[in-house]
Amino acid sequence: MSDKILKTSNYNLFNKVDGNRLVSESHVKKLKASISTIDLKIPIVVNDKMQVVDGQHRLQARKELGLPVFYIVINGLGLRETQRVNSAAKNWNDKDFLDSFVQQNYAHYKTYKKFRETYQFGHQETVLLLSGSYYGGKNSAQEFKDGDFSVSNLELATDYAEKIYQIQPYYKGFKRRSFIFSMIKVFKHDQYNHDEFIAKLSYQSSKLVDCTSVDQYLRLIDDIYNFKRKPEDKIRFF
User: Fold this and answer.
1) ∠ Cα 158 161 167 (to 5°)
2) In this structure, what is the dihedral angle of CA atoms 151, 145, 24, 102, given to the nearest 10 degrees?
3) Short-list 130, 104, 161, 65, CA closest to 57
4) Burial of 65 (0-12, 13-18, 19+ CB in 10 A)
């Protein structure tokens, strides 16, 4: 490890680490404006192979401004360490981690990306559907960032997603996180019949309104589903 900050105007000296997050043009633009106002000369961090493991946006901004680059060399530093540092610092978002693992050919992350592009659910909802466990359970948020995310049952996740989309004509909030979480609980009920729910929802859609919690949604779904059912035939979702 170098104990001093080095300086160079040779931008070709630096290499990209495969799997590092993609450079955001908007972020580079903001950095250029900031540097043009006050140049704090914050160094980037590279490993012994001169691969940029932290500060690629600063490097690009200084390159476009024609300014010298300040850098520190840390031997042996790699992408995984950089991801962990940025995770703690909240510099990387979920898309950054996704792009990184997709670039590294992680199959489960490729499946996640295709599934999310298809159904346009939020990140947490997509993780829940594909992993089969509630977001937050088993520390799934950190698992996604660490590269440990895995798809439990793609066929079942697709089935759930298609069923949720069947609700779209009757409820515009069908993509709300709490609603999706509640529907997954409903789907897991052994006696639930989705065709029956859609049929009853078709003339009771006014009952399905935005809620702030899964429990509230489950009570509404329960009321709609059990409408006109005999007491002994009713099933409970909460």
Assistant:
1) 150
2) -40
3) 65
4) middle
* pTM of the complete model: 0.66
CB count within 10 Å of CB 121 equals 20
Identify which of 79, 103, 104, 105 has the alpha carbon closest to the alpha carbon of residue 92.
79
The pLDDT of 106-125, averaged and rounded, is 95
pLDDT in tens, 145-157: 888 899 999 999 9
Beta bridge partners of 7: 70
How large is the C-alpha radius of gyration of the chain?
A: 24
Q: Taking the CB of residue 167, how many other CB atoms lie within 10 A of it? A: 20
CA angle 139, 144, 29 (to 5 degrees): 125
Residue position matching structure tokens 């066929």? 155
